């Protein structure tokens, strides 16, 4: 099981770069950041762009994989996103993973002046967004006319350093998203069942995640794909456990072990932010990064 982290883009780079360097020193597999225009309680504070931040992070690290968790169609277009991703993959020498999801109803959904899309509209756009982005990242020239997106002789030469393209980690819990993950993803991402966050129990969360993985297996079977070949990523902090797994190395190993038994291959924890929902003891957090992987195999 791999251990990764999320570093929110809330610090000016002069200070923020220290965190990305430290993530590499601690041995994290991947350091992700959120691809939003602003986010939740951080809306009225500093918040920087995801792709420029990852590009800067690529220049101060050497081994650490970098990624978004997640990019969505809320304010992205496949043609321009593909060009930026190819550039980032080049700067990082092939260390980029694209976490991608359908988006939600937060600030991103209305920042460009549009009405927020319904769940059905988000799913419809996502179903067109992902295959087109796949083509743009694997073909030198693409033309396409869809219901929501178009591309006219879009050129993406020389393509990604990673071949045939950088990996997709598709966030999904519904059947349509699961099918996209099975067809186009190298990984699948979940935060658990949001209905359990306030009043559910850790045991109920584990059961819900077991059900999600079973449905992902069904989606893979429909396409003739072995689900074992799809990495399974749990972004923590949104299950009833909240930040309790970060209270000690032992607590984290117990949490990660229970989820490894479900089939998860990567656990993602948030870098501690004092005074926020992601507050945690940074010394304990660093101990977890350094010591827990040895217990997880």
Topology diagram in text:
Elements: E1 2-6, H1 13-25, E2 30-33, H2 50-60, E3 65-71, H3 78-91, E4 96-100, H4 119-138, E5 141-145, E6 150-155, E7 168-171, H5 175-184, E8 187-190, H6 202-223, E9 231-235, H7 249-262, E10 266-270, H8 282-296
Parallel strand pairs: 1-2, 1-10, 2-3, 3-4, 4-7, 7-8, 8-9, 9-10
Antiparallel strand pairs: 5-6
Helix pairs in contact: 1-2, 2-3, 3-4, 4-5, 5-6, 7-8
Which bin fits the share of residues in helices? 40-55%
What is the residue-averaged pLDDT?
97
What composes the largest sheet? 8 strands, parallel, barrel
Q: Low-confidence segments, ≥5 residues, pLDDT <50?
A: none
* Radius of gyration over C-alpha positions, nearest whole angstrom: 18 Å
**SS summary, helix count:** 8
- Strands of the widest sheet, in order across it, are 1-2-3-4-7-8-9-10
Q: Could you tell me the number of beta strands?
A: 10
Structural class: alpha/beta
The end-to-end distance, rounded to whole angstroms, is 6 Å
Strand content: 15-25%
What can you tell me about this protein's structure?
This protein is of the alpha/beta class. The protein has helices spanning 13-25, 50-60, 78-91, 119-138, 175-184, 202-223, 249-262, 282-296, and strands at residues 2-6, 30-33, 65-71, 96-100, 141-145, 150-155, 168-171, 187-190, 231-235, 266-270. The strands form two sheets. The protein has an eight-stranded parallel barrel, surrounded by six helices. α1 packs across α2. It is globular and about 55 Å long. The chain starts with a strand and ends with a helix. The model has no long low-confidence stretch (mean pLDDT 97).
């Amino acid at each position: 099981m791999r251990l990764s982290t999320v570093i929110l883009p809330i610090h000016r780079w002069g200070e923020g770069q220290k965190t990305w360097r430290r993530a590499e020193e601690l041995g994290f597999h991947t350091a992700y950041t959120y691809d939003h225009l602003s986010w939740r309680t951080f809306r009225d504070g500093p918040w920087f762009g995801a792709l420029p931040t990852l590009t800067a992070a690529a220049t101060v690290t050497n081994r650490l994989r970098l990624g978004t968790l997640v990019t969505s169609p809320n304010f992205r277009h496949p043609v321009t996103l593909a060009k930026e991703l190819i550039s980032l993959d080049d700067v990082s020498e092939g260390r980029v993973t694209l976490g991608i999801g359908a988006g939600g109803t937060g600030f991103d959904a209305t920042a460009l002046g549009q009405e927020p899309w319904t769940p059905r509209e988000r799913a419809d756009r996502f179903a067109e967004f992902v295959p087109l982005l796949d083509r743009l990242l694997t073909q030198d020239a693409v033309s396409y006319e869809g219901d929501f997106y178009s591309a006219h002789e879009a050129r993406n030469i020389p393509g990604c350093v990673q071949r045939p393209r950088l990996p997709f980690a598709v966030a999904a819990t519904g059947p349509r998203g699961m099918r996209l993950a099975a067809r186009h993803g190298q990984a699948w991402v979940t935060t658990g069942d949001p209905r359990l966050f306030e009043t559910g129990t850790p045991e109920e969360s584990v059961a819900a995640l077991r059900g999600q993985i079973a449905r992902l297996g069904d989606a893979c079977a429909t396409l003739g794909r072995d689900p074992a070949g799809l990495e399974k990523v749990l972004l923590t902090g949104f299950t009833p456990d909240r930040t309790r797994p970060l209270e000690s190395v032992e607590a984290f190993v117990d949490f990660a072990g229970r989820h490894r038994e479900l089939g998860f291959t990567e656990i993602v924890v948030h870098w501690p932010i004092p005074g926020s929902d992601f507050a945690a003891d940074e010394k304990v957090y660093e101990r977890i990064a350094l010591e827990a992987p040895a217990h997880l195999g």
